Amino acid sequence: MVLPELKLRRDRIRSLMAHQGIDAALIACNVNLLYTAGQIISGYLYLPLHTPARIFVKRPNTFTGELIHPIRKPEQIVEILQQEGLAIPQTIMLEGDELPYTEYNRLAALFPDAKVVNGTPIIRKARSIKTEMEIEMFRRSGIAHTKAYNEIPSVYRPGMTDLELSIEIERLMRLHGCLGIFRTFGQSMEIFMGSLLAGDNGAIPSPYDFALGGKGIDPALPVGVAGKVIEEGQSIMVDYGGNFNGYMGDMTRVFSIGKLPEEAYAAHQTCIDIQEKVIAMACPGVTCEELYDAAIEMVTQAGFADNFMGMGQKARFIGHGVGLQINEPPVLAPRNKLELEAGMVFALEPKIVLPRIGPVGIENTWAVTNNSTEKMTRCEERIIDLLNPDQIQ
User: Fold this and answer.
1) Distance of alpha carbon 123 from its chain centroid, rounded?
2) Dihedral of the alpha carbons of 121, 123, 127, 133, in degrees to the nearest 10
3) Which residues 6+ apart lie within 8 Å of 384 measured at CB?
4) Rounded distance, CA 44 to CA 23, Å?
5) Shortest CA distance to 42 belongs to which of 6, 34, 50?
6) Which of 73, 97, 108, 125 is 20 to 30 Å from 119 by CA-CA measure?
7) Is a pLDDT exceeding 70 seen at residue 328?
8) pLDDT tens digits, residue range 148-159?
9) Residue 53 and residue 47: Cα distance in Å, rounded?
10) How many CA within 13 A on the CB side of residue 267?
């Protein structure tokens, strides 16, 4: 990755550090290293407020260059800083919400006279405003994501289980370049490449903080497919993260086996209408709460509020920021006063679950521009009948 891009990202973090009187940051977690160093390493990026960043590498030993120092252990970092004549910070920022307890204490002990602060919120805030290069990565990812989804009807075979269909979709995604890793922030999110929910499995809650759940095929991962045959008259919701270049675009589309009851098409159209309304409102200065409230008003008027974003267990959001992880700021949720800013990228996912039919709805990835939004994921949004894929309902 080109140095000017990395400097732009680092300077965004520095700007937030300066406002809080932080002298330096020591970055150790994979996603934040990818953001600030351009690749994942076993090591650390030291980010002073006023002097160039330095990288301390344990592995791989082929990662070399100016201001890159090979080390065996983190205790060598301070020794090298002193040898280079650099000041030891009085306030140091560590990734307090991400580092394991032992690692956090070990790194804090490198600077015994410094005040140690939690830098995770600062880094996540900086990452929430994407650069032009990052926006372009979303565009490219969205193209590959769409190509894979367009081929889904070609891999369906009557009598398939939801697991068998999901495997074929995962194969399509990988063939189109998906990296196969689903990166999340925090401990409340686990999944493989994404989720396929057919029929009533879409109403089964899971412990994870996704829009919808699903039983899963094992208690070790209680989310997603249930291993059951997909039956005629069921909807199939396909929701896979589009990680084709490190950036986690998100897209959901709905398919069916044969024609669904009219209620399903009405509910699905309601979700598309909500998308159009929310996106028409979305621009810099609008709060996440305003967008959420607009969606709730529309779904209530349409008569689907009891089934919106789940049934017995509901998700309390209609969208979420995306980036190097699937769950970044902003979150389109009630009481969230955060205002949209140009450069934010979010996935909007209004969804409705219908008993005996399954889930319907839509999800696309959008970038906030100076006065509107740009759509990153573009393919057919109506329900596609896998038995008659050319007939769009």
Assistant:
1) 15
2) 180
3) 152, 153, 253, 254, 255, 256, 392, 393
4) 16
5) 34
6) 73
7) yes
8) 999 999 999 999
9) 5
10) 25
